[in-house]
């Protein structure tokens, strides 16, 4: 056993409750939880400097040039601004997700069930202080607040994984039932869309097929186009909305960790559609951009110094 695993196990033993109450994957337990799990769909209308809604979509493990050559992603690029000098933080996946909402990797260095202490804040604390509504949408999560990993029970394929849910490693989220209730699946995404109960900040993770992790950039690109095309003309979704599609990391560990990233939505002026921007940004810019937009302050971590994306 590696040393951090022992630490995680010890921490786990002292505050087991928060991380174990929603992990059952048994058929009956899941059916029961799906019917009763607390689900929240908060709304708000806090005016931002650049946008009033922020949508972050993460795809998986693709080198910049592979993504830039994909037809689906070329379509996405044609709708917005491609950031040609945008860099991920590290390898593998989980620390990138963790860093993008917490301003640091917090010593998460592998794809494991790490737990970050409940005193550690995230973007969620800043959003809530300012009254900005938020939700996570994780495609095949079996029910809201689920804290485990989920496999497609028909074909055994990976579906939803904890490591691709940016907030699940933070005890400050998982020990709070109202926060867990905002970690939802795509059934809830379309319900929220239908009911016009979309939040102002959201993080979207497609399943392990659609995000390219277990498939290819071709699948991820086709998914991205298919998902985004109807949303871009949906007035419930597009309300001074900035969508940022990015990748967690490159596939190649020895290469530069430059990831293909596109800004789109009606917060991007039509005149900038299909253009590029070569300013250096990174996953911490996601936080600094959101913090700047709604005057949220910062966590005093790497979010505080990350370059802000200005459109
Ligand atoms: C999505 O989550 C909701 C709320 O917990 C649950 O009722 C529903 O069954 C889930 N949908 C799928 C397809 O798992
Ligand atoms: C991922 O979602 C798509 C629908 O968007 C579905 O066709 C596919 O089977 C899902 N993958 C798994 C492993 O369940
Ligand atoms: C590129 O982005 C930077 C920072 O957001 C901005 O200041 C600059 O105006 C942009 N350049 C173009 C050509 O859009």
Automatic annotation (TrEMBL):
Ranges in coiled-coil conformation: none
GO biological process: phospholipid catabolic process
Keyword list, A-Z: Hydrolase, Signal
Signal sequence, start to end: 1-18
Domain of life: Eukaryota
Pfam families listed in its UniProt record: Phosphoesterase (PF04185)
GO terms of molecular function: hydrolase activity, acting on ester bonds
PANTHER family listed in its UniProt record: ACID PHOSPHATASE PHOA (AFU_ORTHOLOGUE AFUA_1G03570), NON-SPECIFIC PHOSPHOLIPASE C4-RELATED
Name this protein carries in UniProt: Related to phosphate-repressible acid phosphatase
Protein species of origin: Phialocephala subalpina
């Amino acid at each position: 056993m590696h040393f951090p695993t022992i630490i995680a196990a010890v921490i786990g033993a002292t505050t087991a409750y928060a991380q174990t109450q929603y992990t059952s994957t048994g058929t009956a337990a899941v059916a029961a939880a799906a019917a009763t799990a607390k689900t929240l769909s908060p709304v708000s209308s806090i005016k931002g400097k650049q946008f009033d809604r922020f949508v972050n979509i993460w795809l998986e493990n693709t080198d910049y040039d592979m993504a830039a050559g994909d037809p689906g992603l070329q379509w996405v690029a044609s709708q917005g601004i491609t950031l040609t000098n945008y860099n991920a933080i590290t390898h593998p996946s989980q620390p990138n997700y963790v860093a993008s909402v917490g301003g640091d990797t917090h010593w998460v260095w592998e794809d494991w069930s790490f737990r970050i202490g409940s005193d550690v804040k995230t973007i969620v604390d800043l959003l809530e202080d300012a009254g900005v509504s938020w939700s996570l949408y994780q495609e095949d999560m079996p029910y809201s607040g689920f804290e485990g990993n989920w496999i497609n029970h028909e074909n055994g394929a990976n579906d939803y994984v904890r490591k691709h849910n940016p907030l699940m490693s933070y005890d400050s989220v998982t020990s709070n039932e109202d926060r867990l209730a905002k970690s939802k699946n795509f059934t809830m995404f379309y319900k929220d869309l239908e009911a016009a109960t979309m939040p102002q900040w959201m993080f979207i993770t497609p399943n392990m097929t659609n995000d390219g992790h277990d498939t290819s950039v071709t699948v991820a690109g086709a998914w991205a186009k298919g998902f985004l095309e109807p949303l871009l003309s949906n007035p419930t979704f597009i309300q001074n909305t900035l969508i940022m599609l990015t990748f967690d990391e490159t596939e190649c560990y020895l290469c530069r960790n430059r990831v293909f990233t596109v800004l789109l939505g009606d917060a991007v002026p039509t005149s900038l559609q299909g253009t590029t921007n070569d300013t250096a940004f990174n996953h911490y810019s996601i936080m600094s951009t959101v913090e700047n937009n709604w005057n949220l302050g910062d966590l005093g971590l790497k979010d505080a110094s990350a370059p802000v994306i200005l459109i």
